[in-house]
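pasting input
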Amino acid sequence: MEIIAIILLILLVGSFLTYFVDSFNKKWTGTTAFLIVLITAGIFFTKIKSGYQFNFQLAGLDLQWGLTDYSYYFVYIILGLSVLALLYSIKYMEGKARLGYFYGSFILTVLGMLGVVISQDFVSLFFFWEIMTWASFLLVIYNAYYKIKTKGIKYMIFSAVGAYAMFTAIVFIHVHYDTLLISEAIAKGAFNFEQYIYIPIFLLLGFGIKAAVMPFHVWAPPAYAKSPMSFTTIFSGAMSKMGVFGIGLVFTSFYLSSNPENFFWVRTILGWMGGITAVMGTIYALIQTDAKKLLAYSSVAQLGYIIVGLSTGTQLGVMAALYLAVIHAVFKGALFMVAGAVEKQAGTTDMTQISGLIRKMPYTFVVALVSIIALAGVPPLGGFVGKWLLYEALITESNNYILVVVVFFSSTAAFMYSYRFLFGLFLGQEEKETEHVKEAPATMIIPMIILAIIATVAGAYPGLIFEPAAKAMQAIGFQDVTWQMSSLTNVWGDTTDLFLIAMLIFAVFIISFVFLTLKGLKKTRYVGTKDISTSGELPKEWENLTFQLDFFKPFERAAAPLYKMDMNKIWKDLGKNLEAFFGFFRKIYTGNGQTYALYIVIFLVVLLLFRDVLFS
Amino acid sequence: MSEIKSIGIPTPEEIKQAQIDFAPRCTSAGRVNDKETQGMVEHILNFARKHSLFVVAYGTGCGAIEIPATMTSRYDAERFGIRGAATPRQADVMLITGYLSTKTLKRVIRVYEQMQDPKYVIAFGSCAINGGMYFDSYNTINALDRYLPVDVYISGCMPRPESVIKGFVKLQELIKNGNAGNGEAYRSDLDWYRKNQQKVIKNWDFPDNYNW
Amino acid sequence: MEGIFIKILGAFLTAILAFVVGMLYGGLRRKVIARAQNRVGPPIHQNFLDLMKLQAKRTNIAHGFMGHMAPVWIIIAAMTVLMFIPILHGNLWFENLTMKGDLIFLLYMMVFGSLGMALGAGQSGNPNSAMGVSRGLAQLVGFEIPFFLALIALMIQFNTTSIAVLMDHQEATGRWIIVDNPFAFIAALLASLGMFRYAPFDIVGAPAELASGPRSEFGGKYLGTMMTGGAVFAFIKLVMYVDLFLGGAGNNNLEGLAGTALGLVELLVKTFLLYMIPVFIGLVTPRFRTEQAIQFFWKWPTFFGILAIVWALYKNGTIG
């Protein structure tokens, strides 16, 4: 039996096995799920190399499973993040209800994602895509088991629309090009925007909805925030990257075209969609008071950067997109884990309710700090590399000067919500309500720390990610992708030496830490957060010194026009209009027998009157 | 110790008690650098301290109105390196500008304790010295010295900006000689100060620990 | 071996130069403001005395780990950026790492210190600090937009993202970029008003409103280190503007020490003149509200920034 089939079978059987383990002993459910995915990852990375192929026939269809460098790149994200997320969720999910349901669906989701990247024909792609979507839907409604109608409906509707669009595109490809293999479709130019433009458009719709591109992003923030955090790690970190994976595939046509002017409009429109996604995600992230929602909106914004990078279609831009895909999975995975740890230990992630956890959860704070610095794109951590590549791609290669300002605006405004996240949960007043909070258990801390280390190392040695990314780019049609281990170079030859920067920062850090902080540390006394200069007034126990609500009100006032655009409202209006439209047709069925009799009479009369025309 | 309620000839016992109560608590015990003992480094640092006085002006009483005049163009205290500080954390000098009601005293103590060593206190006017015209008021304190260590008193009611600057110059002199800054004395005599403070502040709710 | 020695010594020289000049400019600003208000004002070396006094405080307080680290972040950011900015053009001693980082790196690195300080201020739990940070970050979004527009205009006009190459270009053509692209200079200059945080954009540390905002819980050595960092940053910003728009300094034909000295004098004159612009504007203006400040940056400075890009494209031959 083929190794890939065994792997998928392990996951499938494992999914049911976990479900049954749960009925016997709830303690072992999480560990079982973790071990199953760990074993799968082990087998996958040892046995399967890039270039693996497996063809077989099923029900008269030629099915192809295999791995190019491009899909292998995404397997790193999927399996790596899944293993860490499952390790994390052992303790995170402890004591919660319906663990078998959770872990079973979780493993099924991993199966779906793995299937999507290994399938090289449209039938299995669609099949696995649906498994992934529906399994993840089960997890989105996990926390709202009895309120499915209100909580998961947006995700379901958008996913369904995306799936229909993709299915339509697949049918059209089969009709026009008579193939179901992706490589053949690419070779025949099925993804070209010139011939049958609706094929790539429908495909982009399908993938774009998964990647939460504006204007289809409305499902993402509630779905990310409502799911259990250990799943959101995967949901935002890996599953949204499936959309990126698909968009990357569809765009192979214009990577391959020698003349970049060919797809000017497609590139511009998609780039702007990505840019607006980034801006809207960011400005909505910074007015959230719930840390989970903040991160969810921020995920939408970060996906916007990736889309912008892909839409450039240049070497640096696609490299930026692929790099950001990994680094976003790393730091946002870590951040969702942090939010989960806080939720688990303090009971809520509402930033108006809790603050000042830094001294209670120091490890979690350090992870949050590192991940936030990576998210904000400040050197010397990994996030900066992605930002650098993206800007340089837009300025030097894509010549999209206004878009780069839009992206820059979004990325500068991202400092605001980055600070908000750290301040809201970890800094600020240490209130009495959070006195009982303890540090999260070790199995929750370890995956976070691993992710934080990756984000740190990627800042000095981005080449570790560039290497597979370059291979992936070669697999989708780029030639001679250049990269260096620890420095960045644009087409004009300007370099940024990251290793040097990291070393310099480290050296200055050590020197200033010794001479500023350690020197005279004995004469420095620690004072609590109630000992602050409040004009000499003694803050009472009940007095509220926490500044959390309306944190960025001045910015909100300054950017008021931006906040007027609300995609949710537009979709709601559309829904209402459609309802009215179809309601009109529904009125034909009055429920009165006489009306139906009238319809029959009218029909017969028409038939008789126009019989010459109709039956000639 | 109750406040002196009326003027009369005090009995010898009262005088004795008053001598104990009003005895200056800030002896040289708390000062690390007398002029004789201070080394070269301390000498230089004292020079810097002397010429850089960040002021937190606790605007009590009528003296608060003299501060703007002292700071602005006419008298320009900035040429001595005197500058306003926004919070007690950054400040070196606290100005008590006039009478102190017991209600304000609590806040003043808080601000003083939040300042960092070396810290200095300048008291303005008669009210801060002996109660001045409020000597028999039920809600002001009579002698600031019993609640906080004071470095320089400026007499007058109110002192004009010239006197204020004179007071600052006096403080600079003291700093230079290593005779100013009683933060450590305050800490070592904390019990005595706390006793006095608690006597007049009825709703005392400070935490017991100085390192609060 | 000798090269490394010169590099290390040069790095120290750069740091000392930046510190001394930055502090002196701070003192000079106080003097200028005093003279404009018809006062005598403090001596020019006043800031050194302040710094010494703050470092000589016998006790300090901290609100925890991030409070300890806040000045360290600032020093890290200041030193790192300083190493990547060309102080004198082509001078052996002040070369440092100028060819190893480009403008986008500098743009992001300059934020590092503010963010670190914001975190330290956040841990103090003082609502004033948090409010100051909220204002500061909002203002950052304001002035970074025109500044970035100006930088992009330079990048596309001269096909480089490196500050050193821009200086080479100015020396080669003998023409300052302020002539080549005046609109970029205007946009960047207006943005610099926000960067220096003097009135009318001193909304972050407004003493009368926020009790000096993020700094309100820092005293002693912490405040002193922040002052140092601020002084170095002021120098960095000025040198960066001189490098970008005013031809840099040190483009003389003299050899050895004389050339360096002349270059330094040239640098001091240029930076001083540039520095006086925000100082004088600060003298005569009251304070904006936060949203007014942000909207100010999004109006005229942004307009000039876009004009700079159009101008750059026109000069470049891309349009027109």
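fyi The CA atoms of residues 146 and 193 of chain B lie 7 Å apart.
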